[in-house]
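Re: Re: token formats

Sure, here are both.
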Amino acid sequence: MKTTGTDRIFTGTVYTILIVCSLVVLLPFLYVVLVSFATKHEVLSRGFFLFPKEWTLNSYQFLFREHNFLKAFQNSLWITFVGTVINMILTSLMAYALAKRWLVGRKTINLLVLITMLFNGGIISTYLVVNGLHLLDTYWSIWLTGAIAPFHLIVMRSFFQSFPIELEESSRMDGCGELRLFWNIVVPLSMPAIATFTLFYMVQNWNTFFNALIYINDSDKWPLQVYLRQMLIEAADSSMSLDIEGFEYGPPVKMATVIVTAVPLLIVYPFLQKYFNKGMLLGSVKG
């Protein structure tokens, strides 16, 4: 097919816009990475720059010697792992049940799920419930309050509804019970959906901040995001800006903390990418 001059201009314009948008997104990230390898004196004296004159690993060495940072990193890993397991088990089981048209009360439950997407109980009432269940200062206050995301549940339900009824009937004729049918048939065929929402829930749990700030008062149980907030507060107070070794919570340390916080998700994403790309079309096409 022959391309015209108008087509070339249009293609060139599209590529130019995409390149500019990519640079706008990439530049702040690149700045954060490079500043983390600079010295505090250079950051404060030079202002904006991309390539440090003096490269150093002092910020990362400080972080990995800092007990509070290592503890917060460990807490975030635990919150993310257990929380994602809870999220996926409850979401997939509930979505599978709601995909069954013969389920008694299915329409009512679906309506209640939809209502939670529009309204919630509010911060005060949720806090009172968490406090009444004696969950304050425990990770259950984070895991249970965000156990099922309504939007993820609805999309996964639509995915399960796209399964042919003949597959279910033939499995039952072979003696499969409901749990065995779900585990041996549905789960293997649902890997794109499971991988997609696993990634979404991992990001949600890894970035948990507000719930942890409200429900977790014990500093030994803080996740990384709350630790980073505390670091910024301490850095703003000149009387608290030095640790016992005299290394300041300067810009390089803050940037290094941001980079280390983002690394686990950057490592996990490539392993889920092939499923994630398929899962982005969940519920849009009936199979």
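Second one below.
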Amino acid sequence: MDENDAGVEHATPIWAVFGDLMSGLLGAFVLILVGVLGVQLELVSSLEAEIQKRQQEEQRRMALEKALAGPLASGRVTLANGKIGISGNVLFALNSDRLQPEGRQLLKGLAQPIGAYLAASEQMLMVSGFTDDMPVRGSNSQFADNWELSAQRALTVTRTLIEDGIPSSAIFAAAFGSQQPVADNADAEGRARNRRVEMAPVPKSAPAKKDGNG
């Protein structure tokens, strides 16, 4: 056997191994390409779903703002940092927790758009009652103090909104009494501004996990 024959015999296995290597690399490249395409399709699908969700939330937000337009223009309602504030004078008479007709009508008009907004954003509505710093007057008053008055007013608004369609699982009441004023209590105008009810969406609490011990 001459040297040329020996070279051919040694070269054949090398080309075979090289061919197997290239086939393996090609297969790996195809798998990577398929994986990249799958990730891109998933990202596109997620992006489209997020855009659609944002559009739906925007539509509900606009519906809520439309429902608030009239009350905002008249000064009966304020909107700041996502909080809807309603003047206590619109909702209740002084030192009372009974809704006035104007306040009842206002809440009725807000219930549906607020409910739709909460459902879209998966949030809850916190209804907060506030008073001025004047003591509750009158020996026949049913309220011990401003804390109790603000609590009952928040409960009245909460129950009214539930009657008008907001799920009871999506709303709760809170009382702040004369705390957190938005104006100076030194004059009548300031005290009137502090007598208010605020409604604000807040994140839902995550359900508690059971540990399996009963």
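The CA atoms of residues 181 and 194 lie 5 Å apart. Residues 3-74 form the longest helix (72 residues).
- S.
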